[in-house]
Write a structure and sequence with these properties.
Structural class of chain A: mainly alpha
Number of helices of chain A: 8
Oligomer: homodimer
Order of helices and strands of chain A: HHHEEHHHHH
Largest sheet of chain A: 2 strands, antiparallel
Radius of gyration of chain A: 21 Å
Shape of chain A: elongated
Distance between the termini of chain A: 46 Å
Strand order of the largest sheet of chain A: 1-2
Largest interface: A-B, 65 and 65 residues
Number of strands of chain A: 2
Strand content of chain A: 5-15%
Chain lengths: 190, 190
DNA sequence: AATTGCATGTAACAGGTTACATGATTGC
DNA sequence: GCAATCATGTAACCTGTTACATGCAATT
C-alpha cells in the first residue's frame, strides 16, 4: 500500500510519466522504497481509476504516445491523509538476524563470509545514502530542487530538515549494521 | 522462503506440534521472524510433502490427534544448505523512512506524533530484545537450553556466542531507531 | 459446568517479484 | 544503420495478512 504514496509523493512535485517514475525508483526514492516497472504501470492505472491521478496523453513523434500523470486534488488530499495517519508497524522480519542466530550450524568460515557480505552490503547502502545526504545538504539534489520550487518560502527550510533527518537516520542505520558485522568478525577471530 | 528455515531451526532442537511452533513464533524466534498460525500449518504440510519433515501422529485423549513434526535427514541437510548459502539482500522497503522524508506535507504536531510513535514502537522492541538477551547470557532461555542439550560440548560456547551477538545487534538497532526519533523530536522543538 | 489451553486448518485478498514481451524515437 | 533510451505493459507465481471456522481436553 505504500507504493501509491511513494508515487504520489514524487508526482506532487510535478507531472511525470511511468518511465520517469521508474527511474526515480532506481535512484532517489529508491533508496527508501523500491518498485519494479511491472508494479509501477498498473499502480498508476489504479491511481487514475481511483481519481487520485489524471493522465495527460501526449503524442510522442509520429506514432507513439506517452502518459503524463498529474496529481488531482483528491490525490493530494489522499497523500496528506496518509501523512497524518499513524504508521502501522508490522512484526519484524529480518532474514539477516534470523540466519545470524543459527550460524553455529555452519563453519566459522561460513559465518565469516556471512558477516563480510553483510558489511559489504551495508557499506554499499551507506555510500549511496551519504551521497544523497550530501546532495540534500548542498541543495544539489534535483528532486529536492523541484520540490522547493513548488514550496512556499516559509516551508522550504522545514522540507530540507525532514529530508536531511531521514537520510541521517539511514546513514546511522547503515553504520550500525556495519558495526554489528565487524563485531561478528572480531568474535570469530578472537 | 525464510519461514521454512525458521521452522526447521526450531524443530532441529526437538519435535514439536504446529501449536508449539506457533507459540515460539509469538515469543523467542518471533522477535526475529513472525508468522501467523494460518501460515505455519500449511507450511508444515509442505515441508512434510517435500520430505524435510516427518509427522508423527499421536492420539490425544479419546478422539483428538496431534501431529508431532520431526526434522528428517533431508531437512537437516536443507537447513545446513540454507545456512551456507549467501543471503540474498532485497531492496530496502522502509515505510517509516519513506513517510519521514515527506513529513513537511503535514503539521509539526503530526510529525511529533510520528516520532513519538516511532520511539514507543522501538522502545517496546528494545525491551523484548534486552529481556531475551539477558536470558541468553544467563542461560535461562528455554529454547537455548534445549538447543545446548543436543549440542556437542565443544560447540556450546559458539552457539551461545552467535545468539548473543544476534540479539546484541537487535538491541543496537532499536537504540539507533530511538535515537533517530529523539533527534526528530529535538529538531521540531529547536 | 465453564473456562482456558491445545490443536488444526481454510478462504479471500493484498502486495510484491520475476519473467516475458513489444515497439517507437532520438542521437550518433 | 545501430545503439541507447524512452515508453508501456501482461502473466504467473510466491509470500504474507486477515478473517473465518471448528472442536477436543484438561483444569478449576
Amino acid at each position: 500500500m505504500s507504493l501509491r504514496y511513494a508515487l504520489l509523493a514524487l508526482l506532487r512535485v510535478g507531472p511525470m510519466t511511468g518511465y520517469d517514475l521508474q527511474k526515480q525508483f532506481s535512484q532517489s526514492v529508491g533508496h527508501v522504497w523500491h518498485a519494479p516497472d511491472s508494479q509501477i504501470y498498473p499502480e498508476l492505472r489504479r491511481l487514475e481509476a481511483d481519481g487520485l491521478l489524471r493522465a495527460e496523453e501526449q503524442p510522442r513523434g509520429e506514432r507513439a504516445k506517452r502518459r503524463l500523470y498529474h496529481v488531482t486534488d483528491a490525490g493530494d488530499a489522499a497523500f496528506r491523509e496518509w501523512i497524518a495517519a499513524p504508521l502501522e508497524y508490522q512484526r519484524v522480519k529480518d532474514q539477516a538476524h534470523l540466519k545470524a542466530a543459527y550460524l553455529e550450524a555452519g563453519t566459522d568460515d561460513n559465518a565469516r563470509a556471512f558477516f563480510e557480505r553483510h558489511r559489504a552490503q551495508w557499506q554499499g547502502e551507506l555510500e549511496q545514502w551519504e551521497r544523497e545526504l550530501a546532495r540534500i545538504v548542498s541543495l544539489e539534489h534535483p528532486m529536492l530542487q523541484r520540490r522547493l520550487a513548488v514550496t512556499a518560502a516559509a516551508d522550504r527550510e522545514r522540507t530540507i530538515a525532514f529530508k536531511r533527518h531521514t537520510y541521517e537516520g539511514l546513514v546511522r542505520r547503515a553504520r550500525a549494521e556495519i558495526a554489528w558485522a565487524e563485531e561478528g568478525l572480531r568474535m570469530l577471530d578472537g
